[in-house]
Amino acid sequence: MPSQSRLPIRRAVLLLSGGLDSTTLLALARRDGFEIHALTFRYGQRHASEVEAARRVAYVFGVAEHVVADIDLRMFGGSALTSDVAVPKDRPLDEMGHGIPITYVPARNTIFLSFALAWAEVLESADIFIGVNALDYSGYPDCRPEYIAAFERMANLATRAGVEGTRPITLRTPLLNLGKRDIIQLGLSLGVDYGLTTSCYDPLTDGVACGHCDACLLRKKGFADAGVRDPTRYVST
């Protein structure tokens, strides 16, 4: 009998923070048939518990490979996440989309995507997944559609496969136009256990979430709007 042809492996690099968005993104990419090579960064962030969350998520989803890259952005500072500047607490939700908060890490997504791009070239992958969304976000400039489109154009100018036209790079952002409620509902439909994830910018040393930073407030609102229980452990108040 003739041998059956096998579909080519669709390798993808996926930025995995261990948070709600990137975990949903991973579930979605797996559903769509991609072989996932997950990339997490230990960049000097005060919420380093997200690295352990990323390890848990990568293990549960059985990714092909999980790399934790060490880059210390504390040498530059400029953010409450990489310095001793206080993380803002209890900001009204309607203020979060206006202005750029002190939790913005200068050029973070550009740095992360550059690493992902380099790995994609080595893997001969044309797909990079990033879990940005432009609706329920904290005003970060590198989460906007314009930024994603610009980086994709640059990626195809800067890589051998892009220049030769053999394997154009695509930045995949399926969560871009979804709010937190929609992302949570999507993840639950894909079987995501959000108890594996963490979102807090300023957790206790044991990983318990503060419940008051922008990330915690957006997460709480997302679960409340979705009408489901938030499995996060928050500091008792």
Descriptive notes:
The protein has 7 helices and 5 strands. A 5-stranded parallel beta sheet has the order 3-2-1-4-5, with helices on both faces. The model has no long low-confidence stretch (mean pLDDT 91). 39% of the residues are buried. The protein is α/β, with parallel strands linked by helices and 237 residues long. The longest helix has 16 residues, at 108-123. The protein has helices at 20-31, 49-61, 108-123, 145-158, 160-164, 180-189, 214-226, and strands at residues 11-15, 35-42, 65-70, 127-129, 170-172. It is globular. Helix 1 (20-31) crosses helix 6 (180-189) and helix 6 (180-189) packs across helix 7 (214-226). The chain has one domain (11-226): Rossmann fold, CATH 3.40.50.
Topology:
Elements: E1 11-15, H1 20-31, E2 35-42, H2 49-61, E3 65-70, H3 108-123, E4 127-129, H4 145-158, H5 160-164, E5 170-172, H6 180-189, H7 214-226
Parallel strand pairs: 1-2, 1-4, 2-3, 4-5
